[in-house]
Write a structure and sequence with these properties.
Structural class: alpha/beta
Shape: globular
Largest sheet: 8 strands, parallel
Helix content: 25-40%
Number of helices: 15
Bound molecules: 1-O-alpha-D-glucopyranosyl-D-fructose, calcium ion
Length: 541
């Protein structure tokens, strides 16, 4: 599996702005990450996904890039980046960088040129039109903005300051590949590709996601850049179904290693509405969606596994219980995910069981998406209370509060007031605390990661759902040759039964990991306590 090293890896995502501030300006930085590499190593991960650290006006926290070849002064220097790559490598960790090539910042020299005149050589690097249609921006409002200078509209699927690149233009594509090769030569370990499903857009036909040329572009990109380099590549694809997922990830197609699919992340919103329109999660829906993805990728292609990232609320607050069962439910959710087939991703702070926020003021939620939504919804008659409730449940900023290192002021993230407010629970939930408690969420993650390295069945074993109709317990098996694991997770705080009788004797059942010290082995009548999660191993004789 040497070429498939990424199948055995676990990835840790860092949001640099909120990780650790080394120079006391309230903003996390590369030196801060370098200082904490031993901490990351202790967890046992193999890859760091580093969110954008390039030159950027920071309208969308770095997802608006004005120079792909420079490190933003906020985060440090190119020397720091080189050091980070080198020091990570020394610890057996690769750096996967964020590739944001659906759009640039409006301050990127290409766009500055492009907007100068209709016959500028860079005009066609972006998408201009005389007549806007009704395509909308993911950050609210129209996807078209009028530009006085040349009296045309340009396309932006995100903020006005994030104009969309025109992938139809071969010169633009070559320029992107050149930039990617620059980073490959620097020694990075891979690319996470921001909203890559949008690059095949055909705005005239109102095609946003999954455009007809999308896969041609990815094949071309693969060939001209990372193809021979054996890197990890992950595409962010909000609109992927399993069928579409295969187009990206089937080995013979030479596109990407895996994608982030978001079907499971849309289960707690009202159908057809926006994620701000809340709905309770139905566990059976979750089983159906995750099982569909597991089953569809049992032969070819590969899954990513994640609950969290910098755009999603904290999973323990979302589908766990961030009050009296915070640690138990965080461990349960970790077990459920890490038992599955695919490459697991952990988002900074998830390994501590960090929670959502409950700040009272909208001013404490700087994210442009949230700010826009707040204004839109107020204008269309929602009450402040309703809007704040959605924010507390779903805002991206829930994941973006500073990492909680210890119980000192500002959670040890910075010596001054951080760019974003620290979660109020940092005295209880922090790294220092987690590392002195052998039962912490951290050590549960560490153990799950270690198990993946020990048990090949966790990488290769087939997935099989157990007891589909059980509305409270999510149980599944992993099967490889004559080996078998059974993963059982009580998703709720009330005790629950699982009926599983395959006649295995208690003495033939081992427990690989559990979030209780004394989990039962009587599988024919299993009574699970609140959020109890166990991985059983059957010793076949
Ligand atoms: O996210 C894509 C994206 O569509 C999300 O912003 C999504 O709309 C939202 O989180 C949930 O509805 C990527 C990046 O991960 C995000 O941080 C950027 O803001 C966005 O692209 C633009 O680059
Ligand atoms: Ca700093």
């Amino acid at each position: 599996m040497k070429n498939d090293w990424w199948k055995q890896s676990v990835v840790y995502q860092i949001y640099p702005k909120s990780f650790l501030d080394s120079n006391h300006d309230g903003i996390g930085d590369l030196k801060g990450i370098i200082q904490k590499l031993d901490y990351i190593k202790l967890l046992g991960v193999d890859v760091i996904w580093l969110c954008p650290v390039y030159e950027s006006p920071q309208v969308d926290n770095g997802y608006d890039i004005s120079d792909y070849y420079q490190i933003s002064k906020l985060y440090g220097s190119m020397d720091d980046m080189d050091t980070l790559i080198k020091e990570s490598k020394a610890r057996g960790i690769k750096i996967m960088v964020d590739l944001v090539v659906n759009h640039t910042s409006d301050q990127h020299p290409w766009f500055i040129e492009s907007r100068k005149s209709k016959d500028n050589p860079y005009r066609d690097y972006y998408i201009w039109s005389d007549q806007p249609n009704d395509l909308t921006s993911n950050f609210g409002g129209s996807a078209w903005s009028y530009d006085e200078k040349t009296k045309q509209y340009y396309l932006h699927f995100y903020s006005e300051q994030q104009p969309d690149l025109n992938w139809e233009n071969p010169d633009m594509r070559r320029a992107i590949y050149k930039m990617m090769n620059f980073w490959i030569e620097k020694g990075i370990g891979g690319f996470r590709m921001d909203v890559i499903d949008l690059i095949g857009k055909e705005p005239d036909k109102k095609i946003k996601e999954n455009g007809p040329k999308l896969h041609d572009y990815l094949k071309e990109m693969n060939e001209y850049t990372f193809g021979p380099a054996n890197l990890i590549t992950v595409g962010e694809t909000w609109g992927a179904t399993p069928e579409i997922g295969h187009l990206y990830t089937d080995a013979g197609r030479k596109e990407l290693n895996m994608v982030f699919q978001f079907e499971h992340m849309n289960l707690d919103k009202q159908p057809g509405k926006h994620r701000w329109d809340l709905k309770k999660l139905d566990l059976i829906d979750l089983k159906d969606v995750l099982s569909k993805w597991q089953d569809s990728f049992s032969e070819d292609g590969w899954n990513s596994l994640f609950w969290n990232n910098h755009d999603l609320p904290r999973i323990v607050s979302r589908w766990g219980n961030d009050r009296e069962y915070r640690e138990l439910s965080a461990k349960m959710l970790a077990t459920l995910l890490h038992g599955m087939k695919g490459t697991p991703f952990i988002y900074q702070g998830e390994e501590l069981g960090m929670t959502n926020t409950n700040f009272e003021s909208i001013d404490d939620y700087p994210d442009i998406e949230t700010q826009n939504m707040y204004k839109d919804r107020l204008a269309t008659g929602f009450s402040k209370e309703e809007i704040m409730q959605s924010i507390h449940m779903k805002a991206r900023d829930n994941a973006r509060t500073p990492m909680q290192w210890n119980s000192s002021e500002n959670a040890g993230f910075s010596t001054i007031q951080p760019w974003m407010k620290v979660n109020t629970n940092y005295r209880k939930v922090n790294v220092e605390q987690s590392l002195v408690d052998p039962d912490s969420v951290f050590f549960h993650y560490q153990k799950l990661i270690a198990l993946r390295k020990e048990k090949d069945i966790l990488i290769k074993g087939r997935y099989e759902l157990v007891d589909h109709d059980n509305t409270q317990v999510y149980a599944y098996k992993r099967i490889m040759d004559d080996q078998e694991l059974l993963i059982v997770c009580n998703f709720y705080e009330t005790p629950a039964d699982l009926h599983y009788s395959e006649g295995t004797k208690e003495e033939d059942i081992g427990i690989l990991i559990s979030n209780y010290p004394d989990s039962p082995r009587a599988l024919d009548h299993l009574l699970l306590r609140p959020y109890e999660a166990v991985v059983y191993e059957f010793n076949k004789r």
